[in-house]
Amino acid sequence: MIPIVKKEITSFFAGPIGYLVIAVFLIVNGLFLWVFAGDYNIFDAGFADLSAFFDLAPWILILLIPAVTMRAFSDELKMGTIELLVTKPLSLPTIVCGKYLGAVVLICIALLPTFLSSLGNPPGNWDVGSTLGSYLGLFFLVLAYTAVGVFASTLSENQVVAFIIALFLCFVLYFGFEGLASINANLNVAQFGLKAHFTSISRGVIDTRDIIYFVSVAALFLTFTVLKLRKQ
User: Fold this and answer.
1) CA distance linking residue 96 with residue 192, whole number of Å
2) Which of 117, 123, 130, 140 has the most crowded CB, counting CB atoms within 10 A?
3) CB crowding 166-200: b at 16 or more within 10 Å, else e
4) Is pLDDT at 118 greater than 50 in this prediction?
């Protein structure tokens, strides 16, 4: 699995994809947090608080992660190299997990520069529990989004179609259940969505139920990926 992970990361940074992903994520977040006036602007809030970043980041990742994963298997299917890949002395689950972890590592690299502990005055005066919990929540969100994106890349040879499918599935999983609950108060389904569990972890209280939920979603879509490739 390690050679596949290295190959995926190398391929990301051999071309413009890896650098573009990191640059786009940081620039878009920076514009909303520091430049554009509005609810997300830290200067307008009047105090150093990263809650705006954690409100914004899941939505940016909904766009960014499908863009990273859309080529995971769609290229292999389009060029016919999937047959060569599966003839290597590696199991299909190993290949899937290798491509998955490569994408996860790239997104985590994009998140690293946002980890700031010097916003407070004096430096270090920040809510450690809430901030670390929010970053942990983002990490688990990345795990789920990436698994969805890898699965979507097996559904079409066209990268754009794979991107749109992943975008739609991520949106439904993150906000769809909460949206249904807001439309009909009798539908108590918000807890089935990614947003409810991300919000729970962001409070700084680590609940094993939230962790199990995210891991289960990721494992489910990776299983779907393996089954789809085996069928093909």
Assistant:
1) 26
2) 140
3) bbebbeebbbbbbebbeeeeeeeebeebbbbbbbb
4) no
Is residue 95 within 8 Å of residue 85, measured between CB atoms?
A: yes
Contact 180, 71 (CB under 8 A): no
**End-to-end alpha carbon distance in the chain:** 22
How far, rounded to the nearest angstrom, does the alpha carbon of residue 25 sit from its chain's CA centroid?
12
User: What integer pLDDT is reported at residue 31 of this predicted model?
Assistant: 87
How far apart CA 163 and CA 64 sit, in angstroms, is 10
User: Does residue 224 carry a pLDDT above 80?
Assistant: yes
Most confident of 15-19, 74-78, 91-95: 91-95
Residue with tokens 């391929």: 11
Cα separation, 172 vs 31, in Å, equals 26
Average pLDDT of the segment spanning 26-44: 79
Q: Which two tokens stand for residue 9?
A: 């990361």
